[in-house]
Each structure stands twice: as C-alpha cells, then as structure tokens.
C-alpha cells in the first residue's frame, strides 16, 4: 500500500463528517490544510495566516477547546466553529477546526408540524426537544409538534447560551428548568415548568454542571 500523505489522510478523516462541515488544520501561525463543505466555505488556503478573532486563534492562544459563533466580519460569512489544539512534547503545535454553517442567522423561531399545518414557536417559548420514534418532538408550554431537523442540527440552530444538550435524546431550554434533582439512573432529573421531567445522562452530566455552575 502506498504511503498516505498528510492531506490524503485528512481527506479520509473528513469523509467521516457531514458534507455540511468544513475542516481546517493549522500550525501555530498558519493553516496547513482546508477542506470546504457544500454549505459553508471560508475560502481558506494552505499558507494563510491564522487571524486574530478566529476560533482557531482562540484555541491556540488559550490551549483549550474553543466553540462559538463567529460573525461575518472575519471571513465574510457567519459560521459556528469548534477548534481543538494539539500538542507535542507539552507545547501547542496547532489546531484542528470543524466549521458549521450558521443556521441561527435571521432565525428566532422553530417551525413545527401541527395537525392543521405548521406552527412557528419563538425560541424563548421552546421548553425542550426530544427524539422519540425517529422523530424530533418540540415541546412548548401548551403545544407540541414535530420537526424534520435532527437534534444535532438543533444544537447549531438554537442559541447555545440558552439551550443545552443533556441526553442523547433531549435538549432543554435552561430558562424553563424549575428544579434539578439527583437521580440514581440518570445522574439528574430536570423538573421543567411545563410539568415534564427530563433526564440528564451520565455522559452529559459534567458538561451540564459546568455550564450551569453547580
């Protein structure tokens, strides 16, 4: 078998991700690899410097995983990015970045299927989202409907300061949590203000506690 080049190896790794996700790799100062997606293209070229204000720059300067929305002023298009630094001999050598299209721009509602058609629900009124029987159910205080979007897509659609993934089957709006109870089966149970009770699974518990500060 012929030896894989760095670029061809990353191309193979890129195939594991959705074709809506762009992949970028940098060293400490410049990008060394970029694979654009069908939905978002930042027009990065190998050799381009890592600009201040980008998600890659933040990961390199803090030596920590960075995840946030970047507006259009940096690359000309808004995007949501996650960047992870990598080290060699204890020193940061570069970063790997996943770039997602900005689903949130211009949106403030979730549109769901209702018995009579479709109903737009403002983000603030959404209590939780649940995957059940291969459908995504969107729950508000006095209404529930289904959406064609997956929970993964909703993770990038909904404001991250308000909506938290707490289970492989649930996303919750933290403004609608009344109480958090310990539970032997799911680490925590959330009592929501619409009367529902939602589990926080062990795999999400540390992340959940960090975001809510307890």
Ordered list of secondary-structure elements with their pairings:
Elements (H helix, E strand, L loop, with lengths): L5 H9 L7 E6 L3 E5 L19 H8 L3 E5 L1 H4 L3 E10 L2 E11 L7 E6 L2 E6 L3 E7 L2 E6 L3 E4 L3 H7 L5 E5 L2 E4 L3 E7 L3 E6 L4 E4 L1 H11 L2
Antiparallel strand pairs: 1-2, 1-5, 3-4, 4-5, 6-7, 8-9, 8-12, 9-10, 11-12, 13-14, 14-15
Structure, briefly:
The chain is an alpha+beta fold and 214 residues long.
Quick tags:
five-stranded antiparallel sheet; 214 residues; alpha+beta; 5 helices; 2 domains; globular; Beta-Lactamase
Fold and architecture overview:
The protein is α+β, with helices and mostly antiparallel strands and 214 residues long. It folds into two domains: 6-101, 2-Layer Sandwich (Beta-Lactamase), CATH 3.30.450; 109-212, OB fold (Dihydrolipoamide Acetyltransferase, E2P) (Beta Barrel), CATH 2.40.50. It is 18% helix and 43% strand. The protein has five helices and 15 strands. The protein has a five-stranded antiparallel sheet with strand order 2-1-5-4-3, sandwiched between helices. Strand 11 and strand 12 (170-173) form a beta hairpin. The longest helix is centred in the last third of the chain and has 11 residues, at 202-212. The chain is globular.
């Amino acid at each position: 078998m012929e030896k894989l080049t760095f670029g061809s190896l990353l191309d193979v790794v890129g195939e594991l991700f959705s074709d809506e996700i762009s992949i970028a790799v940098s060293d400490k100062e410049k990008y060394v690899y970029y694979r654009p997606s069908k939905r978002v293209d930042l027009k990065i070229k190998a050799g381009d410097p890592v600009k201040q204000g980008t998600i890659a720059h933040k990961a390199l300067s803090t030596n920590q995983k960075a995840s946030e929305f970047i507006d259009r002023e940096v690359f000309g298009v808004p995007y949501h990015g996650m960047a992870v630094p990598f080290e060699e001999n204890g020193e940061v050598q570069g970063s790997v970045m996943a770039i997602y299209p900005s689903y949130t721009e211009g949106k403030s509602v979730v549109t769901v299927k209702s018995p009579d058609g479709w109903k737009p629900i403002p983000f603030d009124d959404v209590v939780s989202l649940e995957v059940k029987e291969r459908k995504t159910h969107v729950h508000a205080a006095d209404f529930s409907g289904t959406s064609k979007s997956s929970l993964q897509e909703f993770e990038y659609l909904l404001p991250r300061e308000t909506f938290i993934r707490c289970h492989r089957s649930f996303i919750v709006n933290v403004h609608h949590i009344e109480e958090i109870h310990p539970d032997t089966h799911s680490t925590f149970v959330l009592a929501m203000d619409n009367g529902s009770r939602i589990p926080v699974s062990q795999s999400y518990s540390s992340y959940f506690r960090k975001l809510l500060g307890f």
